Amino acid sequence: MNDAPNPVTSVPAATLPRHTTLSTLESLIWTELDLAVHSRASADRPAHPWRRAAFATVGEDGPEVRSIVLRDLQADRRELVFYADARSPKVAQLRADPRGQILCWSEPLGWQVRLACTIEIATDGLDVTARWARIRHRPAAHDYLSPLAPGSPLEAPAVPLAPERVRESFAVLTARVRAIDWLELHAQGHRRARFEHGREPQWLVP
Ligand SMILES: Cc1cc2nc3c(=O)[nH]c(=O)nc-3n(C[C@H](O)[C@H](O)[C@H](O)COP(=O)(O)O)c2cc1C
After folding, report:
1. DSSP secondary-structure letter at 4?
2. Which of 40, 66, 169 to mutate to test the pocket of ligand 1 (most atoms within 8 A of CB)?
3. Ligand 1 atom having least distance to the Cα of 88
4. Where would one find the signal peptide in this protein (predicted)?
5. pLDDT reported for residue 8
6. Residue 170: CB within 6 Å of ligand 1?
7. pLDDT in the model for residue 148
8. How far apart are CA 104 and CA 55, in angstroms?
9. What is the pLDDT of residue 61?
10. Spacing, Cα 16 to ligand 1 middle (Å)
């Protein structure tokens, strides 16, 4: 777990050799995800485009997708971490069906990854306490301090804050990546590959 900001030093797609092996490519994808979760926007540079991802769940009425911020990763365990309000619809959907998909796109790389995941939800324990301690005084903590559940109707746009900075609504979501669908858009020909845990990686028709 490391929140230290890193510079965004992506491998430009143009320099990725055309003869790259699938195992090298898989390592590069995780390196890129590592750069993304630790990147921060600064005055002269935006955050890595993969830091903000789209996250899809299976809802009662079909698929539901929204933006999230990737906060952490454990590449050796194929896990990505993000945060949510425990009362939010996405968490309710995950309690009913833990399958989710994370979508990342990088214009500079020309890379899209679709990560098929199984999500674990944690609202207590040492890890949750430590993560909350690190964000509780940041503006991001406001996302988990509303006395009302996300999606509750309001009379006015401003959401009241809870009087105390309790963390009972703060949930840490750990996405265990089961499969990666990688797509590269490239002037010399698009490429696509699939990496599935327990199976041989495979080039695919883009
Ligand atoms: C750029 C951006 C980043 C966001 N990051 C998160 C996040 O990390 N976690 C989260 O729960 N919601 C995040 N949101 C809000 C969600 O996209 C969504 O609107 C909200 O969580 C309600 O989703 P739900 O009703 O499906 O639970 C973000 C929204 C934007 C626009």
Report:
1. -
2. 66
3. 27
4. none
5. 47
6. no
7. 80
8. 9
9. 95
10. 33
Report domain extents, the chain. Answer: 13-82+89-120+174-204
Does ligand 1 lie within 6 Å of residue 66's CB atom? yes
- For the CA of 92, the closest atom of ligand 1 is 27
Q: Is 160 exposed, middle or buried (0-12, 13-18, 19+ CB in 10 A)?
A: exposed
CA 140, 141, 146, 152 dihedral sign is: positive
- Determine the Cα–Cα distance for residues 185 and 50; give it in Å rounded to an integer: 16
Look at the block and give the residue holding tokens 């669908």.
181
User: Which pLDDT score, from 0 to 100, does residue 56 have?
Assistant: 98
Average pLDDT per 10 consecutive residues for the chain, totaling 206 residues: 47 67 96 95 92 97 97 97 96 98 96 98 95 85 77 78 69 98 94 95 97
Q: How far apart are CA 40 and CA 4, in angstroms?
A: 9
Q: Is 82 in the pocket of ligand 1 (CB under 6 A)?
A: yes
Query: Which residue's alpha carbon is at the smallest distance from atom 25 of ligand 1?
Result: 89
What is the spatial distance between Cα 78 and Cα 74, in angstroms, rounded to a whole number?
6
If you take atom 4 of ligand 1, which residue's CA is the nearest one? 68
> Residue 135: its pLDDT value, please?
87
pLDDT of residue 4: 45
CA 61 to chain centre: 23
Q: Which fold is adopted by the domain 13-82+89-120+174-204?
A: Pnp Oxidase; Chain A (2.30.110)
* Ligand 1 contacts CB of residue 59 (under 6 A): no
